[in-house]
């Protein structure tokens, strides 16, 4: 393809005829970034490009097959006119993220293979976020952050969200918290792009209509040096969720329902695309919850079509041009699943697997020792607002220790500043205090991955815990004999009030 052809023309030629896209994609809309560190205009260009003078076939190629969203994104990133599931392609990476657990290993591989004095392919496309083992006295955990800091100074990495003062996270203006939520809040998640990270829950970013997946340290080291990754194109399973969302359900219930339906291997190396009227009604944080846990079903990535909700969230967060893509009406899907969300009930995942689904009301006799609300999956602002809603409705105090770990500094501030709807102006922190919960902790991954023994809320003894996190394998939150019931923030809060696994409808209806 001629280098003189513009990027917009390449995208238009590569992905679909305008007639097909007109049915699948919304009309092009221009958005401008708001104030903040990125302030130049942001243009959103839909793949359904406006009419233009025809180009010779030699310049534009031809469209032979319709494609899914994931196939389109990878086709554009590999400069291919079309792709089919199973093909292996080299793709250009838009963003590479790593953190304190995998960052040192990734850096070591990069230096070994490219040389001690090698430079990363693009210092503005590498995002490094310490978040896992932060507030601990463990020397090895602290050393990992030191390694990240030294590397970022050496490479002049633009987006390094450092933390130096562990005694007071608020004294660290650059520190953010959990990488997946921070990526979204800082504008690194953009429709149509490829985002890779050294963490399995990088798929969280698929909520923005981009291809996002976790990779290993070796692959990440190669991306650091070249900006490219070899990926196999996954087939797509489409999940159509329609119906009005009941007031006692959250996105966590939806994804646990889906994983329970297809099993932890039901989407192995497949893309999971979420569409339908229910999905369109969800805010961005709830969409993130859905995509975050596709890896618990074996999924390669999860994806939600970008829409006005997406574009509004991104206003003021990024000045980088992005180009949404949408599955063609004639795209081939591996399989379809359809759910009438209005008929679903609150669910949990019993120990020790995310697909060990049960209705929350069926587990009412399970006595618990604690409740944990936090993580990339369940520690966002909307998650805490949901928990506060249950505590507010009950007017009671919790009967078991209830730990609150905001995902990021911004979430922590929201807990102390945003009024909870229907509370008469009370904030989440006030409601949590009145309910007898622990004071919200410093933002980090906390006990989700266990961590050193002095990690806040880590299970150092065998306990039964209702948690808004994403995995309940043996030892996941600390003790190998601990039992973890995965649940929505509604169900977690309701369970905290009774000391048993509890259906939130007991307080919300």
From TrEMBL:
- Composition-biased stretches, type Low complexity, lie in 22-33, 44-59
The entry's keywords:
4Fe-4S, Iron, Iron-sulfur, Lyase, Metal-binding
Any one GO biological process: L-leucine biosynthetic process
Compositionally biased residues, Basic residues: 34-43
- Aconitase/3-isopropylmalate dehydratase large subunit alpha/beta/alpha domain sequence ranges: 84-358, 362-499
What InterPro entries does this protein map onto?
Acnase/IPM_dHydase_lsu_aba_1/3 (IPR015931), Acoase/IPM_deHydtase_lsu_aba (IPR001030), Aconitase_4Fe-4S_dom (IPR036008), Homoacnase/IPMdehydase_lsu (IPR006251), IPM_dehydratase_rel_enz (IPR050067), IPMI_cat (IPR033941)
In terms of CDD domains, this protein maps to: IPMI
Name listed for the protein in its UniProt record: Aconitase/3-isopropylmalate dehydratase large subunit alpha/beta/alpha domain-containing protein
Q: Give the organism, scientific name.
A: Setaria italica
What lineage is on file?
Eukaryota, Viridiplantae, Streptophyta, Embryophyta, Tracheophyta
Q: Which gene encodes it?
A: LOC101766127
